[in-house]
Amino acid sequence: FFQWLRYEPKLYQNSYFVPVGEERVTTFIKKVYELKKHYQLESFMFDVTYIPKDDVPFVLSCSKHTDGFYITTTFMERTNRQHLLACYEVLNDLVLALGGSFNLSKNCFIAPALLEKMYAPALAELKALKDQYDPTGLLTSDFFEYYFPSYFGTASPALKERAHCPPSQKQAGSQAALGRGNTALPHRPHE
After folding, report:
1. Distance (Å, rounded) from C-alpha 2 to C-alpha 44?
2. DSSP letters of 122-155?
3. Beta-ladder partners of 75
4. Nearest-5° angle of CA 50, CA 52, CA 56?
5. Is 110 strand, coil or helix?
6. Could you tell me if 190 and 10 are in contact, meaning their C-beta atoms sit under 8 angstroms apart?
7. pLDDT in tens, the chain (191 residues)
8. How would you class 26 by CB atoms within 10 Å of its CB: exposed for 0-12, middle for 13-18, buried for 19 or more?
9. For the chain, give me the number of helices (H) and strands (E)?
10. What count of other Cβ atoms lies within 10 Å of the Cβ of residue 174?
11. Which of 19, 24, 62, 97 has the fewest CB atoms within 10 Å, measured from its CB?
12. Whether 131 contacts 167, CB under 8 Å
């Protein structure tokens, strides 16, 4: 539809994982609507999707230990950005209080320290695996370096070494891996 209009939308989106039980999903959805009204936000899309507990969980899976729901809020760029980010701050704190987390395959408008808190046990497990199978730090990503700096920040020896290489010797994409030219930083619409 947007291609037909020759319009490329820019979206703000967070997708939260809220575990089942104890009225958590209802509490979260009510808060979404309360904040939407309070901040007068124009939503583009709001959806709730059931996610079963993983049969064979991977380390950073939201549903590694329980089933729950992805609750995704999507807003167009015309929404008031300051109000939206204030709304997201409240929802981010609430999802943590409810024992939930983020769908990491979507945009993350969240402070890295809070995201690290949500995933602390899993991040420790992933870091141990990475240290075991990638001791030189060859595999990296902008996302992990930015959002999980305590575990995968640019302080790693391999990143320090790459930072001191002349640009002609750096591997393709390493400028972005060092945080330069990063397009996945928080508070930027999906482009």
Report:
1. 13
2. HHHHHHHHHHHH-TT-----HHHHHH-HHHH-TT
3. 12, 43
4. 150
5. coil
6. yes
7. 556 777 666 788 999 999 999 899 999 999 999 999 999 998 778 899 999 999 887 899 999 999 999 999 998 888 899 999 999 999 999 999 999 999 998 889 999 999 999 999 999 999 999 999 999 988 888 899 999 999 998 644 544 444 433 333 333 333 333 233 333 334 444 43
8. exposed
9. 8, 4
10. 16
11. 97
12. no
Q: Which residues pair with 12 in a beta bridge?
A: 75
Dihedral angle of Cα 19, 22, 28, 30, to the nearest 10 degrees? 150
User: Tokens for 48?
Assistant: 């709730």
Residue at token pair 């482009």: 191
CA–CA dist 170, 114 (Å, integer)? 32
Which token pair is 99? 């024992």
The structure tokens listed for 28 are: 């979260």
Q: What is the pTM of this model?
A: 0.76
Q: Which residue, among 77, 72, 64, has the nearest Cα to 7 in the 3D structure?
A: 77
DSSP-derived pairing of the beta strands 43-51 and 11-19: unpaired
